[in-house]
């Protein structure tokens, strides 16, 4: 399995073991994937008297939301819905019908965090038999679009949306369209041995209390699933590269992109002290905690699963596992390769452009995309742009994500400027003859003492 150095494997084992002992957790299991395959998996503690491994099931809680989001984006990519559609357009009759599908995905719809009634994660789903039962009488706690507010009922609504559009249960659609194509055969709505039992650990004594494993009913799309470290490592690889049988790489990058500082579409964005942002998701249900994170730059991901209600900082441990690999065995870049052919029109666009006095570089890439990046540095990331059929380009990352780049030409066909979401880029800073909004002083550039 592993091509990691022995000292790296020992460091990973040490971090996992320290986490399990300090977190006073009956068992933990972890996996690390790199460049699309699992390179390390190990367990610590015991499940039914045996050390767990990458095939041992744990409940994964809200990592389920990532899989639900994948199904919604599949519907979008098929043209069955738009993310700016109101929920009512496809699932009429709910109290949150004015919320957009994209807002539900990104937790910006303003909905309540939890369904009404007793602690839903420890009570049977039958207590909430109808879709209306997952929303409180006043479902909105903030105006829609005002701010990020995590909402479990929001993902229950997305699950119901999937069922309405597909005409099948959320669970069946998930198995057919995601789990089976990706080979996640040990992931499902119910546990299948070998699996861990959920425990609460007494805060002041080394004793345990069993936690109930309830079927969540209508809330299942927000947190029902059981899975393994091996299966979640597969999901981590998918979150880096996509798989056209399930979801394209462009749509995966859209999932990982920041739609709020905290969240993408079905992915949390865990910001690290060193400035890195690790997309993925955490999960918790009574008796279980879990985290899956990926580092797109290093192409490394990690999973940690534990069977305790509280006390195990799985998000910190998971980020540490990624950091250990990234620091001890940094990624060796792929060989640079030129474009397969040179398009004269595209080549003519390469080089420096200026937004006012700000220098930018436009670079055609070997994969057929463009990159627009600031030459001033400052830590800001450039924008990657994909080609569109009409000759324009759409940003898929960075500041101009979602914006269109259009090449503007004069009557003779010569390029005059670039328009990126109304930002005008010219070949010279404040080009006198360029179409600079507001115009350019006819006297041009001058020294401080000019009169």
TrEMBL record:
Residues 18-326 form the Beta-lactamase-related domain. Residues 343-427 form the DUF7586 domain. Pfam families: Beta-lactamase, DUF7586. InterPro entries: AmpC-like (IPR050491), Beta-lactam-related (IPR001466), Beta-lactam/transpept-like (IPR012338), DUF7586 (IPR056008). This is CubicO group peptidase (Beta-lactamase class C family).
